[in-house]
Amino acid sequence: MTILDDLTVTPQAPPAATAPPPPDLRQATGELRRLKEEVGRGPDPAATRRQHEKNKLTAHERLQLLFDEGTFTEIEPLRRHRATGFGLEDRKPHGDGVVIGWGLVHGRTVFAYAHDFRVFAGALGEAHAAKVHKVMDLAESAGAPLVSLNDGAGARIQEGVTALAGYGGIFRRNVAASGVIPQISVMLGPCAGGAAYSPALTDYVFMVRDTAQMFITGPDVVQAVTGERITHNGLGGADVHATASGVCHFAHDDEEACLDDVRYLLALLPSNNREMPPAAPTDDPPDRGTDALLDLVPAEPGRSYDIRAVIEEIVDDGEVFEIHEGWAPNVVCAFARLDGHTVGIVANQPAALAGVLDIQASEKAARHVSTCDAFNIPLVTLVDVPGFLPGVDQEHDGIIRHGAKLLYAYCNATVPRISLVLRKAYGGAYIVMDSRSIGADLSFAWPTNEIAVMGAEGAANVIFRREIAASDDPEALRRQRIEEYRTELMHPYYAAERGLVDDVIDPADTRRVLCESLAVLRTKRAVVPARKHGNLPT
Fold this sequence. Notes:
Elements: H1 25-41, H2 45-53, H3 59-66, E1 73-75, E2 98-105, E3 108-115, H4 126-142, E4 146-150, H5 161-177, E5 183-187, E6 190-192, H6 197-201, E7 204-208, E8 213-215, H7 219-226, H8 232-236, H9 238-245, E9 250-252, H10 255-268, H11 293-296, H12 307-314, E10 320-323, E11 331-338, E12 341-348, H13 359-374, E13 379-385, H14 392-396, H15 399-412, E14 417-426, H16 427-432, E15 442-445, E16 450-452, H17 456-463, H18 465-470, H19 474-489, H20 494-497, E17 503-504, H21 510-521
Parallel strand pairs: 3-4, 4-5, 5-7, 6-8, 7-9, 12-13, 13-14, 14-15, 14-16, 15-17
Antiparallel strand pairs: 1-2, 2-3, 10-11, 11-12
GO molecular function, one term: propionyl-CoA carboxylase activity
Domain CoA carboxyltransferase C-terminal: 285-533
Organism: Streptomyces ferrugineus
């Protein structure tokens, strides 16, 4: 045995491959920038072109219009879904069809999410829903308004019940934030099925004509079940919901005008229920005379006029932001400013159905009163109401319970409340329109006011029915009794003499009186009973 036999030969390993050096921070940052620019452009230029061909903007373009220039901060732009099956594992675009974040609107923080129709047609899946949940939670925690820009095809069918659970999380957050922060839904595309319930749970719904539709079941399902043929817009377009259903508060012709009004509405509202609405400087003196009212409102209780002209004469600079303009026109609900401070206005409209209260008007006004109360906005009620609308349909459709909603809303409101009777105020409708008896802080009337159970003609016909029937000249006696009733019980100072009206004022002093009264009531503190919540009439 030789020495060589005792040696073990170890084979030489090949030289190790040289690993590429890690990228430096500048290279990594450059890659991140390129990735985010790609995400911002969207998945496909053709998809962007198709969106524009439909007169629709992309999600990022809409957010640029909503927010003050250069203030939008996006979060979770790189998120991707983790679903598999039905080809989803091969399609994982960044963002997952929704853009979320925050920015400034007139210098105040607002949160928003915007569906990106170019990605899965804006349909909601698990990751998409998680992003929406995130921004909703942030908005509530920060005490800032939330705006949703809706343009999506509903639940992502490929993800099944997971997508439905995502909607459930949105609905629950809508309800939790209700009355805590302003929630505004802007409909810029389709919104079908269960997806429509989130906008319905928010404070205000904006829609763009021709491009936006909302319905639970689409035209094809309607035709299959009922045989009725109808278009998408005919079933759930902006004008349908703005005039027939009342789902839509504001309808616009284009996205630019729509988002401009969203910005204006946000300027009138507080950021949350713990703040007062922002005040705006005005050159309109609070003691400005309103002599024009003497000619705008006819003294005769049966003559028509447009209450909008009255409101414009009273408020700062004549600027009125009307809500639900096309639905239930016999009552006007609006925001305006008096001496720079936001007020909510509820007013009977003699130019539509003589200003009577019916089912729709009661619901419309009740909702406005409730929203104002939730966000610390004082209420001014202008009363010129002949009563509730009579009729079999009204009674059978529930005018009692619907009218009770308005009564409940006023009685429940703790914000400053001022009512002003311009002309007639008859029966239960007088009580419901924020009379002193249900808690108005201050109640005023013009010298043309007629406050009574009913009009003099109707009252005389009831009280003196037998006497008039037995008279040799029934018509002459009827006229005599009408005048007696009006003189005894309906003269302009009858309510004031009994303390049910604080003062009868000169119409020319209306603006001054309202501004002074609101200033006094600005520090109002209401004590409410301890309870979980009331039971709203349904």
